[in-house]
């Protein structure tokens, strides 16, 4: 019995000595690991490699994130950049309905391309985050904008069956109902101005006044319709404003009945009232003279052309017409020949004084 006890004590001493040697050869971290014993299998260290032996349950390991892990952060950064850009572009004027519509239509295009099935939800979430103080107004405007678009689409056939006055009334009734009268008039202010101008021109054309009287009324209505922006409007749209007045049938008829000198004076008066300066007026005078000379030559050419067509035919006629075109139009003779071959006779068009 004493001999057996002695053997056990010697074995224990050997094991203790071996443990001490292992601890003395390991580094501090290794020593701590060895001292603490093995970790439970359910909590492997983050950087541990999978065990060599096969196991029925996969081992979760650390490592690099998947390729898509950075996508949400990139999308968030993109939306933050978009919000900053839109706040700078629209923020100071977002109380104006027209600016709200511009913002929303820009966002509709963006989110419809980005998320075709969920664009509206994502757009509203973006508005709540980017424009919290304007969210209620913008959400209501978006709803009205979408409803109006649907109304136009659903009633397309009905609207096309109406005359202009009825169609305009039906359209404005829908706008007023959806957006409110004040907001609708501000949203479509440009259309209202254009319509008022069209109504003015129609009324002028039907009236019995002289060119001078109609020009005065036209200028007055431009001031009334565009208010304080009338001068700026004319500066940007001189040619358009001038053409719309000169295109009236009653104005063309009156100009056509004038002697050349009187017609030149009246054309100058129209252009001056549209804001053209003296240098521009001189250029227009010179252009009018070139046009008059060209139309005079065209009238003589057409008279001779008609006479040749009554006398000749075939190749003989074509040869004479080629000579005639060269005599009247020089380098442009070939262009006019191609026009006539296609059936277009430019000098049979009505003359529009101040326009062609």
Largest sheet composition: none
Tell me the series of helices and strands, N- to C-terminal: HHHHHHHHHHHHHHHHHH
Q: Treating each run of at least 4 consecutive H or I residues as one helix, how many helices?
A: 18
Q: How far from one another are the termini?
A: 136 Å
Principal-axes geometry comes out as elongated
List the uncertain runs: 1-67
- Tally the beta strands: 0
Summarize the structure in short.
The protein folds into 3 domains: 74-187, no CATH class; 188-276, no CATH class; 283-356. The chain is built from 18 helices and no strands.
Describe the structure.
This protein has 356 residues and is mostly helical. It has helices at 2-25, 28-36, 71-90, 97-114, 119-130, 135-154, 156-160, 164-179, 181-187, 189-206, 211-226, 230-236, 238-246, 249-256, 260-273, 278-311, 314-329, 333-341. The protein starts with a helix and ends in a 15-residue tail after the last helix. It folds into three domains: 74-187, no CATH class; 188-276, no CATH class; 283-356. It contains 18 helices and no strands. Mean pLDDT is 85; it is low at 1-67.
